[in-house]
Amino acid sequence: MKVHLYERIWMIAAAAVIAIFLGTIAVGTLAQGSQPPSHVETIDPKAVWTDPRFANRGVEELPDGAVRVTGIAMMFAFQPGEIRVPAGKKVTFRLTSADVVHGFQIVGTNANAMVVPGYVTQFSTVFDRPGEYLIVCNEYCGLGHHMMMGRLVVEAGQ
Amino acid sequence: MATAVAEVKAEKASLGSTLWSWLTTTDHKRIGILYGVTAFVFFLIGGLEALIIRAQLAHSGNDLVSAETFNQLFTMHGTTMIFLAVMPLSAAFFNYIVPLQIGARDVAFPRLNAFSYWVFLFGGLLLNASFLFGAAPDGGWFGYPNLTSKQYSPGLNIDFWVIGLQVLGIASLAAGFNFVVTIINLRAPGMRMMRLPVFTWMTLVTQFLVITAFPVITVALVFLMFDRFFGTTFYSTAAGGDLLLWQHLFWLFGHPEVYILILPAMGIVSEVLPTFSRKPLFGYAVVVYSGLLIGVMGWGVWAHHMFAVGMGPIADSVFSATTMLIAIPTGVKIFNWLATMWGGQVQFRTPMLFALGFIAMFIIGGLSGVMHSSAAADLQQTDTYFVVAHIHYVLFGGAIQGIFAGIYYWWPKITGRLMNEKLGKWHFWLSFIGMNLAFFPMHFIGLLGMPRRIYTYSPELGLDTLNLVSTVGAFLIGISVLIFIYNVWWTRRHGEVAGNDPWRAATLEWTIPSPPPPYNFSVIPEVVSRLPRWSVTQMKAIPEVPPEPIHLPGGSYWPVVTAFGILVMAAGALLHSLWVVLLGGAVLVVGIYAWAFEPFEV
Fold first, then answer.
1. Do B386 and B404 meet the contact criterion of CB atoms below 8 Å apart?
2. Cα–Cα distance for residue pair B361/A105, rounded to 1 Å
3. Are B487 and B574 in a shared domain?
4. Which of B266, B298, B379, B418 has its CA at 20 to 30 Å from residue A110's CA atom?
């Protein structure tokens, strides 16, 4: 079969590009064991209720005065449903999902994170204004998505 | 002359032979019309879905439709508008206009072109057939697993979506290759790359995006299909897969897709503005280069859809920066359009109004887009109605208004009659007011805390009034579209006869009769400048009657047969029946074989 020179060059170039791509991926995953950076902290999504990191759901005061909130998002509620934190202190949220991808948005603030099953979502923020805030799931999660809400109460410090 | 002959023929032909001629057509102009009509019907279906959604959200606690139906409606609204309305409406112009603008008699692969159309039609019908089974897709147009995995969506709904989109991808890819080859190889003598009309240029960029972006979504969909059908674990975190792989693949496709939707509209506007300003486009080369740059940079911004995932400060900053950068070539284009009008004799005909509406609305949509590029600001907006406002300013205010500018602009070329100006202006102003009423309040609705894709909301949010305004706006858009349909009906009989060039425009398509004869150009033109009809060096006139016989390729039914094979395969996959898939595969192979060996001269 006669193949035109240009066609042959294109075929060889395309094959070489594919080989280089596959080779890079193979070396990266097999030899160097590289993982996407989002694999920061993982969790077995089937065992979130028994995992010791999520055994104490709710608000904890840490020795350094900061506050840690541990919670689980599930179809179609947040656990715990109401969170009380002090104003003006650093609050660290640690969240995970028991089923599908959820969102955790505190309306009126820029606290907003996607809660992905298999991962621990962690972020810190400070609430300056005391009051009641609505927590909504903003990542479409099925039939009851519109009912998935929680409440955050920021209490004025003593 | 040619028009008269065609009309006589149409009267004589029986219904059966007319249908057969459309079914087997390989004429790019007829395929363009098929694309346009089909896509417009899907646009109406998608619009109807939007109206039901808005009616449901008109006030808090409403239960006009069930939550299940609502989820299907917003999923199908997004999927329909993107894949079945805006993309194929642009494709209608690629088909009809591009060969005329480059001085060609057809596209490079006429039968492949017919195949693209039939696959698109079958894919669209398949997706919408899901309604008949009460199993319309309900996973959102973005279909995030693991909600769309078998465990959480066991029904046929997501199967329809996964299979339907793969079928549509085949259509887009085939058309993509076809137009790249057409634009590069079939240009008339003298039509250098830097003499191409901007619409053709933007088509070329769009097609490169299509042939590079659609494989990405195909891979993502194949993974999801394997997860659902064969129990693989690509997206199962529990089994060592990665859920976020979908989000990366989807947006790696999804963001170039945004430019696939908007670049053709930018091309149309770049044709309309010079014509109605009586001035050449300001900075042609810069407009072309910034279009190319948008195409390239569109690949480097996908993760701004994912700031809320928590990718870490480095990834967040990189994608913030690239997203801000892509606003530069876009801004350059806007300034070029404004400078085109500056000092021109601006004529406010309907196509011009839509083009101006495009610029104004696209600026608003573009600005809210730049707001998203800051990760910190984005976190207040992600997945709220603010983003819904943004995409509708870009895709309705931008893409759809651009497409309507194109429809009014090229309608006389395609049908030989000018559309009614008065009705056209009513259409424009109603849809312009309607869209601002519908989409502007959504910015506030979003910032006040209403998430996207919620079936209903509580009265305590205090969003009833804003939502009602938005609903009223949506229905105004609906009325404006009805006026457009009436205009089409009216124009059929009473529209002013256009002649070759009703707008005194500059590009090649206006040198030939309207509608163009089947062979387009009686002799292939020799292009001497970028604006052949406006330049001082006049090109040779194109004779009205071909001086010598022109060979035109006949029709072929193999493209329909081959496309049908794909439909059967898709149906077989939905039924989980290997035999039906194999049957469809057999039809496909026979179709391709017969197609390849069919005597068919271009």
1. no
2. 29
3. no
4. B298
For residue B594, being part of any structural domain is answered with yes
Q: Are B481 and B588 members of one domain? A: no
What are the structure tokens assigned to A112, written together? 């907003």
Shared-domain flag, residues B204 and B336: yes
CA A34-A39-A42 angle, to 5 degrees, is 130
In this complex, do B382 and A112 lie within 8 Å of one another by their Cβ atoms? yes
Residue B466 above 80 pLDDT?
A: yes
Closest CB to B454 among A44, A99, A146: A146
Q: What is the CATH number of the domain that holds B211?
A: 1.20.210.10
Sign of the dihedral defined by the CA atoms of residues B303, B307, B311, B312, in that order? positive
pLDDT tens string A55-82: 889 999 988 889 999 999 999 999 999 9
By C-alpha distance, the chain A residue nearest B385 is A138
The model's pTM is 0.91
Task: Report the alpha-carbon distance of residue B446 to residue B450 in Å, rounded.
Answer: 5
B584 and B529 assigned to the same domain: no
| pLDDT score at B192 | 94
Instruction: Note whether B539 and B563 are same-domain residues.
Output: no
Q: Confidence band (pLDDT; 50, 70, 90) for B33?
A: very high
pLDDT tens string A131-145: 999 999 999 999 999
Alpha-carbon distance A62 to nearest alpha carbon in chain B (angstroms): 24
What pLDDT, on the 0 to 100 scale, is given for residue B554? 79
Among A46, A105, A116, whose Cβ lies nearest the Cβ of B238?
Answer: A46
* CB-based contact B308 A103, cutoff 8 Å: yes
Fold of A41-155: Immunoglobulin-like (2.60.40)
